[in-house]
Every structure is written in structure tokens, then in C-alpha cells.
């Protein structure tokens, strides 16, 4: 029925009416908070490229996890900066590595806080790539799978509630699932970075994680930003190999991908609101160009509306405070 009988503004008149018919809900229980843990150094060292985010010692990580837990945030995602690096990234699967130590410490202090461990070699390799390099400088996919599997087992054995492979090697979900199951870790979920694009929005993260490639780039294994059908294929392959949750990264330039992956897989979908997206909002807010609270809540609601069940965001603590008011 058309105007004047139909007036859509009727349900927009008051906040109570608007909330009653709201289609998309943003809740603290849907958020994951990323943290950068360093092997040594002060408890907290601010990261200039990510205002409000710190490099954390093990003790600092426990403290920060406690703050997140107290705000009702259900999960943290850990990235590790090791004391030393080598061509294979052996610190990634070291039982006494930074992520393993941090995981044990956080789970001991907050057993009901979900600890998700990022699973990649780029933070641990001296060359900065996500896998083992051949002599020609190309990442060797199949050799890398063996090292990723060792890392998954080490992280899960340390107490990780879920592992999140972000390397974009072909076949890695199947390799991880097989290794975890073989070691009696069949209950450990895999949150796969299924559609991870070779994006310009990772800049602040690469500085924070000290993971910029020393030569070349990651376009040979991360996805072309122009491709959507390929993203769906990647997600479906990960599901076939045993992924429990699939992820799209970044979020804002790829809202269409989030929607398509959700519709095509019917799986829980995570979206990573990445460092560049966070830093842009922070920079604009610092210049007085936008209302930070309103912009962040609108952004994350948009990511949820696109189909994300889980939102990984550096804004998580602020959002938790805002939503509780």
C-alpha cells in the first residue's frame, strides 16, 4: 500500500519505536579484542600507529585481558612478537614462545575468557613472509603447512580455545585439523581467515606486529581485492577442510564479500575491522572531523548488517563501554 496510507516515518518517531523495529543488533558478546604481546619489555608501550593500543608484556597482556573480560568482551585474539626471528619462524611453535606463555597466563587468570591465537609465521620469520621461502623467494606452500600444523598443536596445547590461521596457504585448514586431531585436540575450533585480501589497510598492523616483508609482497598468496567469486571459493574450501568459522578481512571495503560468504556457506562468519580502518577513524576524530562514538557504532553495525556474526575490532573496549551506557 502506497503513501499516504503507508508512512514509514511512523516507526522512527521515538527511540523506543526505533529500537523495537531495529533489524540489526550490535552486542558486546559479538566482539573480539586483538592484543599484541611482546616477549620482553615494559608492561605497556603505546603503539603510535594505533592510538589507544599497546604492546604488552605477558603481565601486561594478563592485565589487559582482565580489563576486556570485566567489560564483558568474550574473547581476545593474540598476536606475538618474539625475542628473535629466523627464516623458518621457529618461535611460532616453541612451547615457551610468547603466544604460548601469554595463553597459559591469561587462561590461568581468566579461565572463561576465550583466547584465540593468530596462527601465522610472518611475525616470527626474519624475512617477514607468512611461510618458508624457496631459493627464488617464493613462499613454499606445502613445506609451510608442516610448520603451521606444529604451531597449531603448540598453541592448542598451551590452552588456546581456538586457533586462527591467517597465512592463506592452500590446504592449511585440512593440515591443521589433521594435526590437531592426531594430538588429541579434536575439540579445538579453527577460525579460518578464509578471504584475506592483499589490502592497503594493514599498514598500522604491520608496524605493530613487526611483520612487514623484507622483500616483495604478499600478493602471491593473499587475495586480489577485485575478486568476489574467488572469496566464496576460498571460504567453501575451508569449510570442506574442517573450518568451524570463516573470516573476511578487511571488513569495510568488503561488506559485499561478508554477505556473499554468509549466504553461500551458512557458516558462522567473522569480520576483521582491521588496523587501517581503526586508524582512519581515530585520525578523523582527533581532527574533530567526526564523532568517534557515532562513527564506530555505525561502522560495526554495518559490518553486522552485512552478515558478520563476530566482529574483531580494536574498538572493542570503547564499544563495550558505550553499549553499557
Automatic annotation (TrEMBL):
<keyword id="KW-0456">Lyase</keyword>
<comment type="pathway">
    <text>Porphyrin-containing compound metabolism; protoporphyrin-IX biosynthesis; coproporphyrinogen-III from 5-aminolevulinate: step 1/4.</text>
</comment>
<feature type="binding site">
    <location>
        <position position="122"/>
    </location>
    <ligand>
        <name>Zn(2+)</name>
    </ligand>
</feature>
<feature type="active site" description="Schiff-base intermediate with substrate">
    <location>
        <position position="196"/>
    </location>
</feature>
<feature type="binding site">
    <location>
        <position position="275"/>
    </location>
    <ligand>
        <name>5-aminolevulinate 2</name>
    </ligand>
</feature>
<dbReference type="GO" id="GO:0008270">
    <property type="term" value="F:zinc ion binding"/>
</dbReference>
<feature type="binding site">
    <location>
        <position position="314"/>
    </location>
    <ligand>
        <name>5-aminolevulinate 2</name>
    </ligand>
</feature>
<dbReference type="InterPro" id="IPR030656">
    <property type="entry name" value="ALAD_AS"/>
</dbReference>
<comment type="function">
    <text>Catalyzes an early step in the biosynthesis of tetrapyrroles. Binds two molecules of 5-aminolevulinate per subunit, each at a distinct site, and catalyzes their condensation to form porphobilinogen.</text>
</comment>
<feature type="active site" description="Schiff-base intermediate with substrate">
    <location>
        <position position="249"/>
    </location>
</feature>
<dbReference type="GO" id="GO:0005829">
    <property type="term" value="C:cytosol"/>
</dbReference>
<dbReference type="Pfam" id="PF00490">
    <property type="entry name" value="ALAD"/>
</dbReference>
<keyword id="KW-0627">Porphyrin biosynthesis</keyword>
<protein>
    <recommendedName>
        <fullName>Delta-aminolevulinic acid dehydratase</fullName>
        <ecNumber>4.2.1.24</ecNumber>
    </recommendedName>
</protein>
<comment type="similarity">
    <text>Belongs to the ALAD family.</text>
</comment>
<keyword id="KW-0862">Zinc</keyword>
<comment type="subunit">
    <text>Homooctamer.</text>
</comment>
<feature type="binding site">
    <location>
        <position position="206"/>
    </location>
    <ligand>
        <name>5-aminolevulinate 1</name>
    </ligand>
</feature>
<dbReference type="GO" id="GO:0006783">
    <property type="term" value="P:heme biosynthetic process"/>
</dbReference>
<keyword id="KW-0460">Magnesium</keyword>
<feature type="binding site">
    <location>
        <position position="120"/>
    </location>
    <ligand>
        <name>Zn(2+)</name>
    </ligand>
</feature>
<keyword id="KW-0350">Heme biosynthesis</keyword>
<feature type="binding site">
    <location>
        <position position="234"/>
    </location>
    <ligand>
        <name>Mg(2+)</name>
    </ligand>
</feature>
<dbReference type="GO" id="GO:0004655">
    <property type="term" value="F:porphobilinogen synthase activity"/>
</dbReference>
<dbReference type="InterPro" id="IPR001731">
    <property type="entry name" value="ALAD"/>
</dbReference>
<feature type="binding site">
    <location>
        <position position="218"/>
    </location>
    <ligand>
        <name>5-aminolevulinate 1</name>
    </ligand>
</feature>
<dbReference type="InterPro" id="IPR013785">
    <property type="entry name" value="Aldolase_TIM"/>
</dbReference>
<feature type="binding site">
    <location>
        <position position="130"/>
    </location>
    <ligand>
        <name>Zn(2+)</name>
    </ligand>
</feature>
<keyword id="KW-0479">Metal-binding</keyword>
Amino acid at each position: 500500500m502506497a503513501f499516504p496510507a503507508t508512512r514509514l516515518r511512523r516507526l522512527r518517531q521515538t527511540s523506543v519505536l526505533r529500537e523495537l523495529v531495529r533489524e540489526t543488533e550490535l552486542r558486546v558478546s559479538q566482539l573480539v579484542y586483538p592484543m599484541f604481546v611482546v616477549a620482553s619489555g615494559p608492561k605497556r608501550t603505546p603503539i603510535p600507529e594505533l592510538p589507544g593500543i599497546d604492546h604488552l608484556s605477558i603481565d601486561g597482556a594478563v592485565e589487559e585481558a582482565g580489563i576486556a573480560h570485566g567489560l564483558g568482551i568474550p574473547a581476545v585474539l593474540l598476536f606475538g612478537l618474539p625475542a628473535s626471528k629466523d627464516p623458518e619462524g621457529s618461535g611460532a611453535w616453541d612451547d615457551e614462545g610468547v603466544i604460548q606463555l601469554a595463553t597459559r597466563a591469561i587462561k590461568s587468570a581468566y579461565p572463561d575468557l576465550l583466547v584465540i591465537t593468530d596462527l601465522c609465521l610472518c611475525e616470527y620469520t626474519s624475512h617477514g613472509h607468512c611461510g618458508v621461502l624457496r631459493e627464488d623467494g617464493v613462499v613454499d606452500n606445502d613445506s609451510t603447512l608442516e610448520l603451521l600444523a606444529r604451531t597449531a598443536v603448540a598453541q592448542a596445547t598451551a590452552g588456546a580455545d581456538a586457533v586462527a590461521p591467517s597465512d592463506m596457504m592452500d590446504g592449511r585448514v585440512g593440515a591443521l585439523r589433521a594435526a590437531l586431531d592426531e594430538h588429541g585436540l579434536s575439540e579445538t575450533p579453527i577460525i579460518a581467515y578464509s578471504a584475506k585480501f592483499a589490502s592497503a589497510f594493514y599498514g598500522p598492523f604491520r608496524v605493530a606486529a613487526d611483520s612487514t616483508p623484507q622483500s616483495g609482497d604478499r600478493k602471491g598468496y593473499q587475495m586480489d581485492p577485485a575478486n568476489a567469486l574467488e572469496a566464496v571459493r576460498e571460504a567453501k574450501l575451508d569449510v570442506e577442510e574442517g573450518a568451524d568459522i570463516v573470516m573476511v578481512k578487511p571488513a569495510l571495503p568488503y561488506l559485499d564479500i561478508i554477505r556473499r560468504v554468509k549466504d553461500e556457506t551458512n557458516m558462522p562468519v567473522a569480520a576483521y575491522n582491521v588496523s587501517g580502518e581503526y586508524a582512519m577513524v581515530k585520525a578523523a576524530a582527533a581532527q574533530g572531523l567526526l564523532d568517534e562514538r557515532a562513527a564506530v557504532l555505525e561502522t560495526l553495525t554495518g559490518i553486522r548488517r552485512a552478515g558478520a556474526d563476530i566482529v574483531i575490532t580494536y574498538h572493542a573496549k570503547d564499544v563495550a563501554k558505550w553499549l553499557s551506557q
